[in-house]
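[SOLVED] Need 3D model of a four-part complex

Original post:
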Amino acid sequence: MIVEMKTGASRPEVDAVVEKAKSLGLDVQLNLGTDKTVVALLGSNTGQLPTDIFEVLPGVESVTRIMKPYKLASRTFKKADSVVDAGGVKIGGQRIVVMAGPCAVESEAQLMEVAEKVKAAGALILRGGAYKPRSSPFSFQGMKMAGVELLQNARERFGLPVITEVVDTADVSPIAKYADILQIGSRNMQNFSLLTKIGKTGRPVVLKRGFSCTVTEWLTAADYLLAEGNEQVILCERGIRTFEDSARFSLDISSIPVIKKFSHLPIIVDPSHAAGHFSLVPAMARAAIAAGADGLLIEVHPNPKVALVDGAQSLTPSDFARLVEELKPVAKAVGRFI
Amino acid sequence: MIVEMKTGASRPEVDAVVEKAKSLGLDVQLNLGTDKTVVALLGSNTGQLPTDIFEVLPGVESVTRIMKPYKLASRTFKKADSVVDAGGVKIGGQRIVVMAGPCAVESEAQLMEVAEKVKAAGALILRGGAYKPRSSPFSFQGMKMAGVELLQNARERFGLPVITEVVDTADVSPIAKYADILQIGSRNMQNFSLLTKIGKTGRPVVLKRGFSCTVTEWLTAADYLLAEGNEQVILCERGIRTFEDSARFSLDISSIPVIKKFSHLPIIVDPSHAAGHFSLVPAMARAAIAAGADGLLIEVHPNPKVALVDGAQSLTPSDFARLVEELKPVAKAVGRFI
Amino acid sequence: MIVEMKTGASRPEVDAVVEKAKSLGLDVQLNLGTDKTVVALLGSNTGQLPTDIFEVLPGVESVTRIMKPYKLASRTFKKADSVVDAGGVKIGGQRIVVMAGPCAVESEAQLMEVAEKVKAAGALILRGGAYKPRSSPFSFQGMKMAGVELLQNARERFGLPVITEVVDTADVSPIAKYADILQIGSRNMQNFSLLTKIGKTGRPVVLKRGFSCTVTEWLTAADYLLAEGNEQVILCERGIRTFEDSARFSLDISSIPVIKKFSHLPIIVDPSHAAGHFSLVPAMARAAIAAGADGLLIEVHPNPKVALVDGAQSLTPSDFARLVEELKPVAKAVGRFI
Amino acid sequence: MIVEMKTGASRPEVDAVVEKAKSLGLDVQLNLGTDKTVVALLGSNTGQLPTDIFEVLPGVESVTRIMKPYKLASRTFKKADSVVDAGGVKIGGQRIVVMAGPCAVESEAQLMEVAEKVKAAGALILRGGAYKPRSSPFSFQGMKMAGVELLQNARERFGLPVITEVVDTADVSPIAKYADILQIGSRNMQNFSLLTKIGKTGRPVVLKRGFSCTVTEWLTAADYLLAEGNEQVILCERGIRTFEDSARFSLDISSIPVIKKFSHLPIIVDPSHAAGHFSLVPAMARAAIAAGADGLLIEVHPNPKVALVDGAQSLTPSDFARLVEELKPVAKAVGRFI
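Solution:
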């Protein structure tokens, strides 16, 4: 942590910073320039200290963090890539894992049809929303526990592990009984109560990036899961909010190499929510794999025209099958396979 | 809702749009231009219909929503300004209500000292965080229920209604017993489970704007509270996330007249979280009142240097007292008082 | 400048950083922590050095700038507030200066009518666009030199100094002959050729903030003007681009106290371009003054319904007159006058 | 264009809208809903009409544009993909064109070394900045005309067409004599004087996206070039400004399929400026090709450690050669070649 003093800060002001730092067990090194004094604070936990502690002291101009605020999710903490095992499917290895299914579980017939078709096309995991966070209270909110049970049926019938979203701490335990992967949605990335409770289950979890959260905040949120002893964490990039309006969100493609550089956790990409429109999904899915993603989360609906949620971004089963074929040579080009 | 067909869309494609709309009970009017067909869909509930329903139909280029997606929070639904009564203090009337107190309740001594001083300076409501949503699991998480109890003590001792944040559905009932106003934090604005549960309590609630949510999404989230029959809703602007980094967030000053135009709900402003640094708080507080805000939520700490949370953005009690004096003539200049 | 070495960086890697810094005449102080080495580089010109010089060296994790990249615009360089004199009107003093007029000069009749009315209402400077930067080549591009001549006529007739925009280096000299203030538009804030040429004229200049430029970039752009010896620089905040779409741009109200903290230059606000709609202009104008702005730049059109450019954001002369009356008590509340 | 009237708008207010539209030669269709009236305005030029014309009329709530504001750059205007010929190299065909070279031309030795090596590695076009737009006046501003002449030498010696940036209307003619492609930088995307002047030369031009401009604004800016009769226009995505700070800009990967959908112009990608750090360039280059880009613009410096500009984002010649090898199978995977 670097504390920059104001030009003309007095000696007692500098001393107060030094004293405060020492009281926190930090090493202190004074850098006395001609124009201003800069105080370097060193220690293994400076990433977790709030900068406010020093910002409020008189004579301080600014405080800059050098250490990252996340710890357990960092590559410094763990050098080797983590591989998550979800119902026997490995995420983070050489194989790129495609997860597919409907945005919302709507009925047994709908789910079984999709499950059969995405499996045939090459998906290894079935996705389906049962608890749906919707921006308006007047929109369809999902089949809730009945939807989770249908996912469980599909899982047994087709041998596909399933992933579904949890939106309330009260639902963590019942859903964790059935789902192979618990999903934390973008709007809940900083719902720390939910993270803590899901962390405690020890189940594999997909942590979607908050649509306005930095990579640093995302990895710091992952620390909530890891701090509970749950190492089965998969990150999911799903687009960030920007001024651009031709897609629903802007897929932050560079977050993939950035995550690979700073973290050991696997990262998958959800091109459907980023795009908001099916016509953009294939290009974004190809780009994600080329950039190094470990998997994809794709919305597929047997008949998008009658989908209750997010029909515009869903692929038909046949479009999905064609996409998987397109993705295979891209995966091969980067030394992987689907 | 306006459905724009692609140039060269076929008659059956247009017919499919018309049919779909009629099946939903909408009025349809065809606008046949020389270049393209535009279909207008009219009805009182088009704001709540997902645009996806039409976007997926063949031949459709784009779908534009004309009606706003929120309903109960809109000025169309209720013309007159809503006034919330929190423990006898009216928010939304001619008096500008100042809420002040520490970011986090840290001890009885800290809270009582602040309560006494902010009351003396002119605050009408006491704020204090007991459950703190922190970006890192290694940061202080608040005193939790013990903090709520201290707030309750301060309330009795000084006769100030209190506001405190709720972060988990499991905590809604116990906190609602003590707090005059329940606060929903920025990171939970779209935690719809929490909104629904708080809506059911009927208690006054401050709904902070998600730092990357539009005004439209904010009012739509308010609909979750209002739909449960809770009309005691106060909006709170606290800065949005942008590329600018000289303040922690960018206070969206124009959201104030925009909310006044489109909604009947009162709006207050939190300059402390927007600024992130105490030196910017006074200018932003003055601007908020000049722009028409109904109140302010300001962080005050007896000794910001030792604050456990957000010390850099906290005012000292004497700075706060001076600020309130500065604000009085501004309030008067816009026909109000503090 | 702070150079953070990677964990485990070798001694020769650290030495290379030190050597490079010394070759640039910087003081170097090594901070050897238990986990990593941090190198502090000190010197009066580190703000102007590119961080790249160190980022490319092996073993370097990151480089953080402590000194600001701007120099002449900073309050460190000049402590006292600068006051600009434009045709006898002082900007940056106790009086808040209102500049008003049409977005585009359309005809002699239009301009003279506005000039007369805004003067009567209290405007001290007349604005009018002659060269209009329009996003589409098929839109009205302004009256060009004929418009500048009309402004010159209005100036003589009503005794109001005039401000008009320059968009091409080729037009700087002819326009500088007539205009009291040259305006650099938001889209040209980083058109460095234009800045340099306008800097050389020594004429008062309004430098509008690029709608996606940080305050730091803005002040660094101002350095281009100041470096040519032109000290007559006025900054103008006109809204930044964000995800919010209820106003055309988001007025960055906190840029006003931030500029006052870091720079000696006067700052005015253009609520018309930020708002994009006349109904939001009054609240934003009041907020700007309450936050400490030194002036306002407001669009007024005798008949917005037939305006060739930006009619929706223009006030009528009578609305403008009412607004100036509203602003007077706000100015007084912050110790100033209009 | 869709004009939404306010709830309760009077008949004369609706009539005024209709009359205004008819006076502009538009077809008008009234949509009378139960709650509000919506007026559809149809005609082939509504995309070029300002919405303000209607927004200012009494009783109007909002105006929504249906037609895009750009025309000549649209796929509606020209169905087939445009292919640009720059000194014999085709951009927009099946071959993916790699342009490479230093950010800034620094010396003959530097340029010749890079030119030889990037050619050997597979680059088809040589890039090099001679006029550098720098955010600070105290930074190196480029070799200017001497740099252009060196580019011309390199072009003759190695048979590589060259691309270089133009920053001032005064420089367009002299540079156009030598350069095969004129580059318009991100900060000048809406420098309409420059666009018009470059459009008139008829030379191939790379139009970089303004870092905060939408795809729609970008294509509308391209209309300035096309309107002068210059059809040799290549778009270049180079990252947009967002809140994320782990890369210098956020590469908007979805802009590639969006441009392909709405425009006939070829699009290339500059991963170097988007990334800001060489370590991220390869992943972003691979993603760009996988998403459908027609080419790449990559910074290569013989010795990034001593680069005068943007060293941190430059590849060494050997890293560049390795990258081109990596890109070949990705190109093949999407049916193209390098």
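Edit: The interface with chain A takes residues 2, 4, 7, 27, 29, 31-35, 38, 40, 42-44, 62, 64, 66, 76, 241-243 of chain C (CB under 8 Å).
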